[in-house]
Structures are given as C-alpha cells and as structure tokens.
Amino acid sequence: MFGHNRNMNRDIGNGQECGIHNGIGRGPSSGKRKHIHLVHSLKIGEEGHLSDLHRGQKCIVLDFHNDNKILRRRLLDMGITKNVEITVKETAPLGDPVDIYVRGYDLCLRKADMHGIDIRIIE
C-alpha cells in the first residue's frame, strides 16, 4: 500500500502471520507501530484450536488442554466433549465472543476459552 512500510514474519508451526507496519499520517497516532495478526483459514483435515475457526466452518473436538478445572467441567457440562461436531455460526463485531452450534443448540464462548480446545476441520 502507498505510504506504508510492511514487514511480514511467518510462524511456520501454527500457520499464523504477523505483519508490522509503520503508520504514516496526521494526528496523535501517526508514526506509532501497529501490530496486526493475520490468521489463515484452516483447511479440511487440518488440526488447530477452536479459536482458529471462521464462520461456517465445522470441526470435531479432539482434546482439551486447559489447566482450569472449573472451566473444563463447565465446557463438558455444556456438551463440548471429545468427538462432538461443532459449527461456528457468528462472530461478534470485535471478534469476541463467538457463537457456535453444538449438540442442537447455540452457545457463545470467549476466544480465550476456545483456545484450549483442540479440533480437526471436517467441513
């Protein structure tokens, strides 16, 4: 883009890209560095975290990796168990929370809570 200096770094391990650019312009934010996270869509058969999904993607739950026993118990009580199918329905305007469809009902979860759930994309 005109007026921007862009450096792209790629983290091969989890498929996330981080782009850093210098903002040029007027006002109090001019000249400050901004950090942007661009995450690519997971493809069918790939594994990741529930927080990596975009609207319309379906997955199955593989495992939990969460140290918070209370949160783990709450997720299990709400029906998020191993091998259950989950569909991402909507995302809030600022990206958090996310509306998912699981076991016949809609459920809203925070992205931080979704990050502790390992999944495999099925659609």
Q: What's the shape?
A: globular
Tell me the major beta sheet.
Answer: 6 strands, antiparallel
CATH architectural type of the largest domain: Roll
Q: What level of helicity do the residues show?
A: 10-25%
CATH hierarchy, class of the largest domain: Mainly Beta
Would you give the CATH topology of the largest domain?
SH3 type barrels
Give the number of helices. 2
Instruction: State the low-pLDDT regions, or none.
Output: 1-27, 34-38
Strands of the biggest beta sheet: in what spatial order? 4-9-5-6-7-8
Structurally, the number of domains stands at: 2
**SSE class:** mainly beta
Provide the gyration radius in Å: 17 Å
Task: Give the end-to-end Cα distance, rounded to a whole number of Å.
Answer: 34 Å
How much of the residues is beta strand, in percent? 35-45%
> For this structure, what is the CATH homologous superfamily of the largest domain?
Ferrous iron transport protein A (FeoA)
Describe the structure.
The protein has helices at residues 69-77, 111-114; strands spanning 5-11, 16-22, 33-39, 47-49, 58-64, 85-91, 98-102, 105-109, 117-121. By secondary structure, the chain is mostly beta strands. The strands form 2 sheets. Strands 4-9-5-6-7-8 form a 6-stranded antiparallel sheet. Strands 1-2-3 form a 3-stranded antiparallel sheet, with no helix packed on it. The longest helix has 9 residues, at 69-77. It folds into 2 domains: 5-39; 47-121, SH3 type barrels (Roll).
Keywords, separated by commas or semicolons:
SH3 type barrels, 123 residues, mainly beta, 2 helices, disordered N terminus, 11% helix, globular, three-stranded antiparallel sheet, 2 domains, six-stranded antiparallel sheet
